[in-house]
């Protein structure tokens, strides 16, 4: 009987995951976006579902496809949409993993009509988006809250700063310094840091294997 429980350690658990980029509208035909593919978040969703979790996968625009009957996909476009969806599900989940590459800024005003080109230069004023992860950190109760940090320099220090500032239980540091890690690739090099600031570095691996490492760390923390 214990064997079966060990094989599905997330049975009965609900997991919220954000994935992919967000698109911030400039006018009806243009947006500000980024190169996030959604691969990492979708792989995490699959790993969690494989271990028995009921998964709510809130995804920005992505060509990825969810591959499990226990994954409910919620499609969003902008940071504001993702914020609303995340808050809608957060109270009801046991774990939230925010892997989305959310835009930090959006156009302050969205033009109603397509902006026409002129000879002169064009300036678009940007306003900050809401930080979804930080907002969940402020209201979290029983939930295990996991964030990502994408860094190019002072990686560990910056990641620890985000962990503290956003009131997280775990942060997954994504190293862009290594070739083969990051947005368009199939591999990632991560270090997982917990709230006691213990650092656990992992080898460069496929995103599918990285997802399993992340979910395994979460399983350990849910049990204890
Ligand atoms: N995040 C979020 N909402 C935002 C911005 C970021 O939920 N508006 C989350 C990301 O999904 C990730 C974590 O915050 O889990 C860190 O994102 P990152 O871009 O590395 O950090 P920022 O806090 O945005 O700071 P900066 O981009 O300046 O490094
Ligand atoms: Ca950011």
UniProtKB/TrEMBL annotation:
One of its GO terms (molecular function) is phosphopantothenate--cysteine ligase activity. Binds 1 FMN per subunit. One of its GO terms (cellular component) is phosphopantothenoylcysteine decarboxylase complex. It catalyses: (R)-4'-phosphopantothenate + L-cysteine + CTP = N-[(R)-4-phosphopantothenoyl]-L-cysteine + CMP + diphosphate + H(+); N-[(R)-4-phosphopantothenoyl]-L-cysteine + H(+) = (R)-4'-phosphopantetheine + CO2. Residues 10-219 form the DNA/pantothenate metabolism flavoprotein C-terminal domain. The keyword Translocase does not apply. The keyword NADP does not apply. CTP binds at residues 104, 114, 148, 162, 166. Its EC number is 4.1.1.36, 6.3.2.5. Residues 15-224 are annotated as: Phosphopantothenate--cysteine ligase. GO terms for biological process: coenzyme A biosynthetic process; pantothenate catabolic process. It comes from the Bacteria. Catalyzes two sequential steps in the biosynthesis of coenzyme A. In the first step cysteine is conjugated to 4'-phosphopantothenate to form 4-phosphopantothenoylcysteine. In the second step the latter compound is decarboxylated to form 4'-phosphopantotheine. In the N-terminal section; belongs to the HFCD (homo-oligomeric flavin containing Cys decarboxylase) superfamily. In the C-terminal section; belongs to the PPC synthetase family. This is Coenzyme A biosynthesis bifunctional protein CoaBC. The chain holds residues 180 to 403 of 403 of the full protein.
């Amino acid at each position: 009987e214990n064997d079966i429980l060990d094989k599905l350690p997330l049975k009965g658990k609900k997991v919220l995951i954000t994935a992919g980029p967000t698109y911030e509208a400039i006018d009806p035909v243009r947006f500000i976006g980024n190169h996030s593919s959604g691969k990492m978040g979708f792989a995490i969703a699959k790993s969690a579902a494989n271990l028995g979790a009921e998964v709510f996968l809130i995804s920005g625009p992505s060509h990825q496809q969810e591959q499990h009957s226990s994954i409910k996909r919620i499609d969003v476009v902008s940071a504001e949409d993702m914020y609303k969806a995340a808050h809608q599900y957060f109270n009801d989940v046991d774990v939230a993993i925010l892997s989305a590459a959310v835009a930090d800024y959006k156009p302050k005003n969205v033009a109603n009509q397509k902006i026409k080109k002129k000879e002169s230069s064009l300036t678009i004023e940007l306003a900050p988006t809401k930080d979804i992860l930080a907002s969940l950190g402020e209201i979290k109760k029983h939930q295990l809250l996991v964030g990502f940090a994408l860094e190019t320099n002072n990686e560990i220090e910056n990641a620890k700063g985000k962990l503290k500032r956003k009131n997280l239980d775990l942060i997954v540091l994504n190293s862009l310094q290594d070739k083969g890690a990051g947005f368009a690739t199939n591999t990632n090099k991560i270090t997982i840091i917990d709230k006691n600031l213990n650092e656990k570095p992992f080898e460069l691996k496929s995103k599918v294997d990285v997802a399993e490492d992340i979910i395994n760390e979460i399983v350990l923390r849910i049990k204890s």
